[in-house]
Amino acid sequence: MKRDFIAIDDWTTEEIQALFKLALDLKEKQKQGIEHHLLKGKTLAMIFQKPSARTRISFETGMYQLGGHAIYLAPTDIGLGKRESAADIAHVLSRYNDGVMARLFGHDLILDLAKHASVPVVNGLTDYNHPCQVLGDLLTVIEHRGSLDDLTFTYVGDGNNMVHSFLNAAQRLPMHLKLACPEGYDPDPAVMKTAKDAGISTIELFRSAEEAVQNADVIYTDVWASMGQEKEAAKRKKVFKSFQVNEALVSLAKPDVKVMHCLPAHRGDEITDGVMDGPHSIVFDEAENRLHIQKAILVTVMGN
Ligand code: CP
Ligand code: NVA
Description:
By secondary structure, the chain is of the alpha/beta class. Helices cover about 45% and strands about 15% of the residues.
């Protein structure tokens, strides 16, 4: 049976912990220059409907470091769901490649790809979620805090794909997850409910960023207008004004609070230069860990 990586809650707590462990092991090997060609001779097709820096570069680099090869397919190449159906492309890629990674608009399309591919499909972001990012983020928290125990994690901003993945993670890993979103920009209530019903994390929604960051170990933010929402950017800039992660907001959290952002950041909007470049920021450790967690994911789903 092939295994996909589409959403964090598709994986058990034990499996997620194993990914963290493998990621740290592969990271150490990479730093020490120890060869780890666990995917020797294997290829990964990477389908992009949206732009990317980190996702493309980290997957491509990761495959190379694992002894394999990645193939970048630009938004103009495949025309997934338009030039050709997801099912047909899934069948074709399964004849060439050992795995598929896709960054798509509609989540249904990645589910369709996974359904029809006989090789593993890894989600590199959809409008609904961004699971590789969130596992890399939690790995970064583990490195900085030693563990996820008693973690108070505050997300400030749009209730978007990042938040859905945090909610999915909170179904498997206990945490106090506080979300500060302006009215009308909440995450999907069904995803909220499923996460709450799992009963392993405390999940709260706030309308005030100031209130939500009290006692936070981590403050996390993301762009106010995601890819595909560019037309709403001006309106959102007004709505989200009081949800900026700035020095004053950070000073309300724990003194050693860590600030995170999945990047790309719109400096001066959701986060100030002072915070991005300041002592609390771990955004570049976080960006680095995309590489290590994804190598662990690739080895787990594509390895022998
Ligand atoms: N964080 C992230 O996924 O970055 P890219 O959009 O640049 O891939
Ligand atoms: N919410 C953002 C995340 C980018 C990594 C987007 O979807 O554009």
